[in-house]
Amino acid sequence: MESRTAVINDLNGELEIRTVAVPELLPGSVLIRVDAATLCGTDAHRWQGHLAAKDTPFVPGHETCGTIVDLNADAYSLLNEPLGVGDRIVSSYSHCGHCFYCRIARQTTLCEHNTMYGAWAPEKLMGGCADYHLFPPGASFVKVPDNVSSPLAASSACALRTVFHGYEQLGAIPSWESALILGAGPLGLYATAVARDRGAKRVFTIGAPAARLDVARAWGADDTLDLDRMKSVEDRVRWVRERTGGRGADFVMNCASSAAFIEALQMCRPGGRVVNIGVSGGPPLSLPAELLFRGISIKTIVMAEARHFYEAIDFLATRQDEFPFEKLLSNTFPLAGTTQALRGMADFREIKPVIVPSLN
Question: Domains in the chain, start-ordered, CATH in brackets?
């Protein structure tokens, strides 16, 4: 059995469509036919060389929804449903299950033996931009209900599940709290929707370009600020404080970049909370000491636990009347169009491009 894969050989270069043999399945492995793989900003950053992959060549794509075509040994969903050929699933990253982080701390995202998708050699078949995707032993599976499309389910397997991890770390949201979301990519847009769903009194989103802010408003943002129209950090901080009684937002979700972390602290009220999700390359941050004297609680997020994948799929399945989720998805590409999709992500022309291998 063989699979076509979209292979990155050179950074910023054209992807090669390469055919590889499907590996033998180890006990506990599951093989899916890729129904849809959505691209993430991380994929674009890896392609551009901003983030390290293990080595080139590698296959992009760590947000994948597909249909089981083969499995080695019995497999079950997180709800203990038996899984078989023909079931549509998304998968968490695998972890070892026996280290300090897995057994004692119960923080499996910190497991030193995590197997992430989307940055592996083509012969491993663990990237979504391919006909088939192998989920290794130790992964956890969520069955996708019929009312959730494969592209939306794929998008949940990174951005939305990470957002749910962030809100878990944030804790309860009293009805009087204001939410500020930095970033209007998929992370920021999903964070906007969850803030609205969880009852924040006011929700503000800062990002760009304008088309993404249109989605933020459709998903519940009370007010938005276009970064392309307000370049000054001081002006942006003033914009937030004008809308929050002069104090700053009660909590800030930084879904933008590492550099925006300091801005998040400046926009948060004294005694508020900052959750940092967005991480990017760049120089070390220089933190003004006075920001450490404001009583702000800070949480940093590393990926997501298996339960957050379930929460993400459940959110998509049960909130379709409240949020027009399809607005997140931009253009659909065949496997041969993966380079074009990555360029669109890098240039901010795409919000969430979808790769559908069966279109070839």
Answer: 2-147+320-359 (3.90.180.10), 162-300 (3.40.50.720)
